[in-house]
């Protein structure tokens, strides 16, 4: 199983990788820069090389780089969209130095322009940034539709992908809290939801999962992460998600509201649950 959580890279990639090993993770997510979208840290190739030695030794899975979530690729103000394009392009350049790394971003908020226009703006931005020789997969995160967020339905995500020219490496990161809040019943109808994903987007585009419980009920359109097993999704649903044949080989990333020590406990809890259900199959 490939599992990790969001970690700070304030002390560098090697230090973050060491933390991941300490908490029994074999991958992690990080912000490419301060979430407010300020300048990225200077590239330290020596630090990346040291990280790679640990990743290889410990058989790490793909890392997940998260774009600043305050960027809005489909903002009304062209300057805000330009800024998002600039950050994406800079981040794409950084990704070239990070082997086996995926790049995740929020599709944006249409801020009153309407969903159609929002989807077109975000695809236009991807068309500006992505080239034929793109090497890093760009992942659209599934959203909860809080406010005017786009990307809360599989159809909307599919439309962005179809409007993007070089879309061979455009994929999706499924956030369990967000899809549940958006109205997809992953607790009682996981198979149906994944079939729907396959029909609309194609499961081959699903590259990562954000593992978060939800404080709010299904279809609440509220983005409030809860600790694993302490929300409306619940522990048994997470065990099914981790074991599902369509998902079990993907990297899973916790973004639950706790610290490194809390994430260590959640990883241990999930591994224990998986081991138990492997030795005592429920038959369902
Ligand atoms: Zn996110
Ligand atoms: Zn997320």
Q: Explain this structure to me?
A:
It is a single chain. By secondary structure, this protein is α/β, with parallel strands linked by helices. It has a single domain (2-279), classed as Divalent-metal-dependent TIM barrel enzymes (TIM Barrel), CATH 3.20.20. The protein has nine helices and ten strands. The chain has helices at 13-22, 45-57, 78-95, 115-129, 154-163, 176-182, 190-200, 235-243, 260-279; strands at 2-6, 27-31, 63-66, 101-105, 138-141, 170-175, 206-211, 213-214, 225-226, 251-254. Helix 8 (235-243) packs across helix 9. The protein binds zinc ion (ZN) (2 copies). One zinc ion binds at residues 66, 69, 106, 141. One zinc ion is lined by residues 66, 69, 106, 141.
Note the main sheet.
8 strands, parallel, barrel
CATH architecture: Alpha-Beta Barrel
According to CATH, what is the topology?
A: TIM Barrel
Output the helix-strand order.
EHEHEHEHEHEHHEEEHEH
The number of domains? 1
How far is the first residue's CA from the last residue's CA? 21 Å
Overall number of strands:
10
Strand order of the largest sheet: 1-2-3-4-5-6-7-10
Helical stretch tally: 9
Strand proportion, as a percent range, falls in: 15-25%
Attached small molecules: zinc ion
Assembly category: single chain
| CATH homologous superfamily annotation | Divalent-metal-dependent TIM barrel enzymes
Give the overall shape.
Answer: globular
Q: List segments where confidence is low: pLDDT < 50 over at least 5 consecutive residues.
A: none
**Rounded to an integer, what's the Rg over CA atoms?**
18 Å
Classification by helices and strands: alpha/beta
Helix percent reads 25-40%
CATH class: Alpha Beta
- Mean of residue pLDDT? 95
């Amino acid at each position: 199983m490939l599992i990790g959580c969001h970690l700070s890279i304030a002390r560098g990639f090697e230090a973050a990788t060491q933390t991941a090993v300490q908490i029994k993770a074999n991958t992690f997510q990080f912000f490419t820069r301060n979430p407010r979208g300020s300048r990225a840290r200077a590239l330290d190739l020596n630090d990346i090389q040291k990280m790679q030695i640990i990743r290889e030794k410990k058989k790490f899975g793909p890392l997940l780089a998260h774009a600043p979530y305050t960027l809005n690729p489909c903002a009304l103000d062209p300057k805000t969209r330009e800024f998002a394009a600039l950050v994406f392009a800079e981040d794409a350049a950084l990704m070239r130095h990070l082997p086996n790394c995926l790049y995740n971003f929020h599709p944006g908020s249409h801020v009153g322009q309407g969903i159609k226009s929002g989807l077109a703006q975000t695809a236009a931005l991807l068309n500006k940034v992505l080239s034929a020789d793109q090497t890093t997969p760009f992942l659209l995160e599934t959203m909860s539709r809080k406010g005017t967020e786009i990307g809360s339905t599989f159809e909307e995500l599919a439309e962005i992908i179809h409007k993007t020219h070089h879309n061979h490496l455009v994929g999706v990161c499924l956030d369990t809290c967000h899809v549940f809040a958006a109205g997809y019943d992953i607790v009682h109808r996981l198979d149906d939801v994944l079939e729907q994903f396959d029909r609309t987007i194609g499961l081959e585009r699903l590259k990562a999962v954000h593992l978060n419980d939800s404080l709010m009920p299904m279809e609440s359109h509220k983005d409030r992460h809860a600790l694993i097993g302490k929300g409306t999704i619940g522990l048994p649903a997470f065990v099914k998600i981790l074991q599902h044949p369509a998902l079990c080989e993907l990297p899973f990333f916790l973004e639950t509201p706790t610290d490194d020590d809390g994430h260590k406990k959640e990883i241990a809890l999930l591994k224990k649950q998986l081991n138990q259900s492997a030795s005592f199959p429920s038959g369902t």
